[in-house]
Amino acid sequence: ALLDRLEEIAQETPEVARIILKADVKKLLKNGNGDVVGVEYEKDGKTFTEYGPVIVATGGYGADYTQSSLLLKNRPDLKDLPTTNGEHCTGDGIKMAQAIGAGAVDLKYVQVHPTGLVHPKEPDSKVKFLAAEALRGCGGLLLDANGNRFCDELGRRDYVSGQMWKNKGPFRLILNSAASNEIAWHCKHYQGRGLMKKFNTGADLAKEMGIDVSVLKNTYEKYNAVAKAGKDEFGKKFYHNAPFDVNDWFNAAIVTPVVHYTMGGLHVNAEAEVLGDEGKIRGLWAAGEVMGGVHGINRLGGNSLLDCVVYGRVAGANASKYLYQDLLTRVRSVQGNRTSALSRLDLIKGHLTSATDKTYTLEEVAKHDKEDDCWVVVGEQVLDVTTFLKDHPGGAKAILLYAGKEATDEFDMMHERKVIAKYAPHCVIGTVKK
Question: Rounded to whole angstroms, how far apart are CA atoms 381 and 356?
């Protein structure tokens, strides 16, 4: 709702707020007093500046595989792990702030999540999709390569990951029919991405795992007895959707530990002000995962979004107050006004681009099924998303799974249709021919 309202304001009154997309901020600007007064950024091969108070909200460094990697410097033991983080999580906001004297704390504290989903066709992919905790919460079991349980599936993320490192993979997350039905949306979503597979019987699952079905049957029977008695050697206390029956049907996915969240980040105070050696740096705030010291050594599940909302509001309120107090008299430059006008023209152009009458058959769409020529169908619209792939927050692969295909069901599971007009109107090239 907050983002929707901001977009409305930017569209209706661009002199009040502008949203600049596909812009790469390179450095923070300071005045003679050491206050942060704006940023320098690159867009379309040109360098621009924007002036005003700055809130850094660039995320963590869980995908920082650059030469100046914060992950490599602070946790070299995790450098070879895959990550659930997008390619944007390279710690650049932290580094930019450090370059002007900001402090950083807790950079060695990195959260490893036990259930990154392994795509069978891309087992070595550096970026993994996360298997939600809900899959284990609704009764999913974790089994090692030999078909045995090895942990309390509901344990903390660091505990479960640690137990996986002590045992033999590949590891599988397995849901029986009751658990699968309870969390059907997730299962359908993961199956659509090729990350989860349905097995009609335990024998089929055992064959896939390369073990005898009697092993799986024994594991299930031991678990059922534990669930009935309420006493587990691994300390599990809740046994949702038990019992497990080898004759049931199952959903299963291969999982592996992944870098998921970085607790370290910029040193801030309770007002979200970024701190340096000499105290707070005027004009600079932070919000979200870029902040350090908020979650201690291991963040609790669910608290990251809470962190973003709470400190996003705190930082926004304080930056606004600062702006009114110290920068109210700043006059926009002629170039700034020109940029506003160009933004309005770009928006108009986007709406005009989407209003096309051209039609395509599904056979024609199917010809455009490659990374350098990628079309998809959403509802009645045909989209050429080739140039959008690198900008997709969920990564290019999430779209490429449906290259040249109908993608409506998967799209509707994750988005509202209006996001096309908001973020990618230029991608709409026509409609599906009846």
Answer: 10
**Rounded Cα–Cα distance for residues 422 and 434 (Å):** 26
Q: If you ran DSSP here, which 8-state letter would residue 127 be given?
A: B
| Burial of 59 (C-beta count, 10 Å sphere; 0-12/13-18/19+) | buried
136 is catalytic: yes
CA 82 to the chain's CA centroid: 14
Dig out the tokens for 401 from the structure.
């799974």
Q: What is the pLDDT of residues 358-376, one digit of tens each?
A: 899 999 999 999 999 999 9
Residue at 187: amino acid letter: C
Looking at the chain, the number of H-run helices and the number of E-run strands are 15, 20
Q: Catalytic one among 18, 119, 136, 426?
A: 136
Q: Which of 5, 18, 75, 113 is the catalytic position?
A: 113
Active site residue 113: yes
Structure tokens at 272: 């979200």
Rounded Cα distance, 75 and 89, in Å: 16
pLDDT tens-place string over residues 303-322: 899 999 999 999 999 999 88
* pTM to 2 decimal places: 0.76
Treating both helix axes as pointing N-terminal to C-terminal, what angle do 202-209 and 213-229 enclose, rounded to 10 degrees? 120
